[in-house]
Amino acid sequence: MSQVATVADPHGGHPVPVQKTPFGVTNGKYAMWMFLLQDCMGFVGLFAAYTALRVTAPSWPDPTHELGIWLTAGMTFLLICSSVTMVLAHDACERDDRAGLLMWLGLTILGGLLFLGGQVYEYTHLMTGVRTVLDPEWGLPLSHNFWGTFYALTSFHGLHVLGGVIYLSCMWIGAARGKYHSKNATPIEIVGLYWHFVDLVWIVLFTFVYLVPATVKYTAHLVPGSGG
Amino acid sequence: MSTHDAHGPAGQSPAHVSHRAEYIRTFVALTVITVVEVALSFVMVGTPLIVMLVAAALAKVVLVGGVFMHLKFEVKSLVLICVSPILFAAILIFGLMPDATRMFLDRMPGTVAFHR
Fold first, then answer.
1. A26/B5 CB distance under 8 A
2. Which among A13, A127, B33, B100 has the fewest CB atoms less than 10 Å away?
3. CB–CB of A33 and B24 under 8 A?
4. Running DSSP on this structure, what letter comes out for residue A26?
5. What is the four-CA torsion angle of B97, B79, A187, A30, rounded to 10 degrees?
6. Which chain A residue is nearest to residue B5, measuring alpha carbons?
7. What's the predicted TM-score (pTM) here?
8. What is the CATH number of the domain that holds A103?
9. Rounded-to-integer distance, Cα B28 and Cα A75, Å
10. What is the predicted ipTM?
11. Each residue of A114-141: pLDDT tens digit?
């Protein structure tokens, strides 16, 4: 299935064989795409459950009222920034700019860490903030599917961000040791694919979980035990 | 074929084509769309808002997938494989809708469940 090409060893050694798929990409990159596709289906399952639960719920609160939109809008901006630093890291690697590679990779890691910090802050605020489940003014029980789906989707994504930060940190160490350069830039592109996927999922998640408003409200007719 | 990992048969890497300007343009576009999305969620309501939000999210997904994930520079067969989850997502989500709608109608006050 794969074709074998060679790239010159930058240290003057024997040419290094590189396996390529019929799609013109390396096996590693193709494998990452396959991993992302199956990971994507995991998110699709969660989104399908979210949609079904939301549509069937007799009441669904307006997310803009229950969740901190400004905080998550900032977190979205952070992920977008980290995506652009990621592609700039790959670009620096292709140009043999080691200092640039380390700087942009470092900034990408920082963006991921800040995003995780924002998520921890958000969770802490939601769980221990002024508007708790004991507040009669709030009226949205903790058992409401709104919270179940919210925490399932955002925490699953958060785990991906955490995994991405660890993956990026390993790549940063490799880059600091001079492992990646213009002749071996594909691993940087592969970690970039993963990181952009994490960004892409957040874009969809932010829209559907945080921004899409409640269109039908039957709050006066809540059915006990309906889970909604 | 990706311009980023294409190596010639003689083992020589071709001159790297930098897309920095395009990356920056994409970054600006993504930021502007996000700001517009958040602003719309405060000034619009109902179905028009949902349509606008879904369109904005779709535009952002295309930008990230096309430019940042380099799908724009890949061969078509790889692009088709990579966008296939959209089809499966649609089947999964819309496949659940008949049941979901029935459950919703059952719970509405004054509605007689038609399936009983």
1. yes
2. A13
3. no
4. B
5. 80
6. A186
7. 0.82
8. 1.20.120.80
9. 16
10. 0.80
11. 999 999 998 888 877 645 444 545 555 6
